Amino acid sequence: MKESMAQKILLTTLGRCPACGNQARKQVIAIKDTAVYECSSCTLRYIDPCLSLESMENAYESDETLTSLHSFHEGYYDYGSLACESKTSRDYKKALRLIEASRLDKKNLSIFDVGAGNGFFLAIAKERGWRVAGIDSSPKNVELAKRKFNVDLICTNFAFYKKNEHKFDVISFWDVIEHLPDPNSAIQKAKEMLSPNGQLLIGVPNDQSLLRRLSILIHRVTFGWVKKGLDKVYFLEHVAYFNLRSLTGLMRRHGLERTGYFYTSTDLNRFSFKVSEKLIAHTVVTLGKLTGLQNRLVAVFK
Description:
10 helices; about 300 residues; four-stranded antiparallel beta sheet; seven-stranded mixed beta sheet
């Protein structure tokens, strides 16, 4: 599996910021096979070159293909249960409550999830009374969502999804837009699928996290000798690295304003770490909470 996945990995050169299109940039750090740049205009950080769209789809086809890139992804897509509370389920519920609190009519709300994975988020929304729909490009994920959560997904890439006249109160992107070489087309398409007063829900890694700052600091003070931590922050399958400022700027270019947000941290139980790695991860996550530099950002735009 690892060899076949490696054969499918193809890189593509961007040459410009995926958010604003500006070509002016400065290199932040060089890492294996690519480099991290900061846009001189909108300050978004992104890698160039990055995975091609085809390679991106291949990478997220299943647990096995993800694991071939990073061993800590083992069991990633099978994670989640409506019967057991978890860090992931609490974050999903918090995001839904954030939206529900802003709606006068809290009944019959509808949501469309892009890149729905195994359907866990939609299952939680459905349990709270939402009408749910969504897509995922992986046939295995679509089958898993139906079998595990009785959630019906359409198997397609959002770029190829044929939208109809049906409008949704919310379009959600959990860990999706950071993978896109052109997030603007996805956001514009999602905006066109929103009902009046509809909202976009975005969940992304936070580039202003303690982990990111520590990793770069250690790399710099050791003159590039120590790269430990960078492989948990910057990697090929993530194109863009957003913080609150750059994400808000991206949305404003589409006429969308931020209505709420919160920071959270990675659900470490969702990943398969070695004992030593898990201890370090728990320490960094705890320090991130104490300093307010958590490694995940969830925001709502209208």
